[in-house]
Design brief:
Length: 171
């Protein structure tokens, strides 16, 4: 089962170009100044099967003959309550639609995720871009693409995993 807030079918903000965005419900970080406080509650949103959500996402990604990216946000898609659904979705799309670029936003840092590689390996191997780090209000910068504060990074996961060094995308 998956608990999510919404699926935005034509998102031009979260990703490069057109995206379908899945907003997970529930977040343990509670960042000061968060603009998604309504997503903190793990009991809010819509409860559905992962299979049903994948069907909705798949239909939306190809709606009207336009191929879209897939953006996975929250809440927190990589917290213990959501990580299994996130990895299932990422793996499904990478296996069945490898042309779709997958973006994941998380309040955890890449270094945090690598420390728990057994838990996050499937997600890291199947997503293309990771926007990492908590939102820090004092470092807020509305001019940044794909992130809200300057501590957050936009990481090319494929290059990072291949080289062993974090590869930041220059936007």
């Amino acid at each position: 089962m998956i608990r999510y807030a919404t699926i935005a079918e034509n998102d031009l903000v979260d990703g490069d170009g057109w995206s379908v965005s899945l907003w997970f419900q529930g977040c343990p970080h509670h960042c000061q100044g968060c603009h998604n406080k309504e997503l903190w509650d793990f009991n809010g949103g819509v409860l559905d099967s992962v299979f049903t959500v994948i069907q909705k996402l798949e239909k939306a990604v190809y709606a009207n003959g336009i191929s879209r990216n897939l953006s996975i946000l929250g809440g927190e898609p990589l917290c213990k309550e959501n990580v299994l659904a996130t990895e299932t979705i990422a793996l499904y799309f990478k296996l069945n639609h490898p042309e779709i670029k997958i973006y994941i936003w998380t309040g955890y840092t890449y270094e945090d995720l690598i420390k728990n590689k057994d838990l996050y390996e499937i997600v890291l191997n199947n997503a293309d871009v990771l926007i990492d780090g908590p939102y820090i209000e004092r470092w807020r910068d509305v001019s940044l693409h794909l992130r809200g504060s300057s501590n957050q990074r936009v990481i090319d996961l494929k290059e990072t995993l291949e080289s062993g060094e974090i590869k930041i995308l220059q936007l």
